[in-house]
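Reviewer has doubts. Consider these tokens.
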Amino acid sequence: MKLNLSAPTINITHYDHVIPSRDCILSLFDKVKHYLSHEQISHSTGLSEKNQKEALKKRLRAMERDGQLTFTHRRGYRKVDQTALVSGRISLHADGFGFVSYDDNQKDLFLPKHQLDHVFDGDIVQVLKGHAQQQGRSNHRLIKIVERKTTHIVGLLKKKGVNFYLSPEKSTFSQIIHVNPNQFTAKSVGKLVYAQVTQYPDHKHSTMVEITEVLGRPGDSGIEVKLALHRHGINEKWESEVLSAALALGTDVNEKDKMQRVDYRDLPFVTIDGDDAKDFDDAVYGYPMDNGQWKLFVAIADVSHYVQPNDPLDLEAQTRATSVYFPGYVVPMLPEALSNGLCSLNPNVDRLVLVCEMTFDDAGIMLDAEFSEGLIHSHARLTYNQVNETILKPNQWSHSRSNKVEKHLLNLHRLYLNLLGQRQVRGAIDFDTQELAFTLDNKKKIASIDPVIRNDAHRMIEEFMLCANVATAEFLQEHKIPSLYRVHAGPQMKKLASLRMMLADKGLVLGGGDKPTSHDYNVLLEQVHDLEEGDVIRTLLLRSQSQAEYSPKNQGHFGLAYGAYAHFTSPIRRYPDLLVHRAIRSKLREQAKGTFQRLLSKLKSLGQCTGGSTNYPYDSKAIEQLSVHCSHQSRQADEVSREVENALKCHYMKPFIGQNFTGRVSGVTHFGLFVELELNRIEGLIPLSSFQNGEFEFDGVRQKIVSQTATFALGTQVEIIVKEVDAKQRRILFSFAE
């Protein structure tokens, strides 16, 4: 078929032969409104020579690459409607298809497997939105890969003949991954390796990688942590420049630095933490006043004194943004010389702190809060269990400073009980979910899984930290300092609708209509407290919540029922807390201009004061960028920790293959049931393919599966058999017991 189109005659000569410009080619499609083949475009633009047609083919491919045209072998080329183009991150499924997320308020776009031969999970791609077709899916089309997000791949090195290739740990890679031989390859076959991508796949090339690190063999001690860290690109090693900067600060507080501080060393501050804690961010002290009011002092390690903006320690801490915790192991945000040493509020040594001094009435209402740069000398390193024993059995304290410390702890507990009353009035949600503690053997595998027993000492310290965080947020608001808030929005409408239908099936109601309050959640939590399926319902309510994040704008905290909230209490392990400390110190120094500043200048001139810059180099734009980064790093840390825990659970459950357990349905999907075992709370999947009896129907809204013989909904008790443990995918498969 030949088209008689009068095309513009604008030509350019980027190629060896004169061919139509891009504008000229695009104008052809404005006239025909459909597909054109290479031959039709050649004829319409008056190209007849073979060399010209080859040059045109290159230009058309370039226009396809740049998102101006699309191409199919059956139909040819078509102009892309630029208004229908969107860019987003693609999430690939193990079966090869993918979904592109491009707008929080829009449904993800489905792309079929045949379009994704050259795409890696997480890539930023450009998609041409199509129209809805049968079966609810649309004919969206991948235009191009905008940005590659995968730079390294973790996998098992294999060899076939003389060639090396990588079997990736992630199941989303559909490409063959070839390995360039180097000094690692010959000795690393059968080992897990970390490889850098040297060539991305396209129409002409396969994926090529080069090994940069050998991680070990599957099953090695600690291999789960190594894999997770490399999978997410988290660096646990320290650059020499960073370590040198940390060591240069010394191990003891400089006498010169003590001179500009409020001296709290005579007050019996103590730290209260878990048995295995090594870094101590916070110390507390409190007492009743003669007028019936209470004083509470929360002293937090003053990391901001030692880690200055944009120095090597700061840049590394900013990159990491958080410490990452695993069973029996931690990747700290700061080198141990600081996190476990100079910044840690260890007992019987002087330490620099920021102190939040709060005043409460006898009902637990905060009346006032002040901040100061302080100096403390922790009188004791206590554990939650020690403190709880003191609360339960006063006058039996065995610590060397018995009288002073015991009286102090009992005062703190009395204050906590007042604050607890305010927590209930405020309506803070208490999901009371059960945490698990893993005991590891000498090979860093799970030896036992035990519930974490929370007592009044845990809850007391948690409440004190919440008070200090609220006082911090109000300080930031009052002084209009650009900084980070910790915000938590209410539940989304979509999640609420599904939640209400699931609850209705169980005869339960969440009050509050379209805008339930934290009080409404607490009423329902109280109703299900003693139900057999209470744990599952609590988890269901927790999943209905939005995710907390960092924001430059205060938006309140729904779950804690606070109008303003920020993170202040953990600068050793969270970068947002360090930023907040810098904001507070900058304001304190600004307020102290007068006499204190003159004295400070005199001390500096005499060489009697060092460190402690008042510099706060953050404007609104910088804080916005840091809020996004810190939120991402916080979510990633949680994800990495879960991955390691799931891998360890898989190893733990291998000896139980073939054994029967009782569990409850904890999740319902179109591909099966998730079941949580009652014995150890480990979760596994019963695939729909293992359902033996006839047809079944999946109800996604009410979260249930109905078969000919049974109905399975959240909380349904089932008997299962451990069928298979897939360590590579960190997945445990169950089947129904006979």
About this structure: The longest strand covers residues 366-377. Residues 152-218 form a domain with the OB fold (Dihydrolipoamide Acetyltransferase, E2P) fold (CATH 2.40.50.700). The first helix runs from residue 22 to 32. The chain has 19 helices and 35 strands.
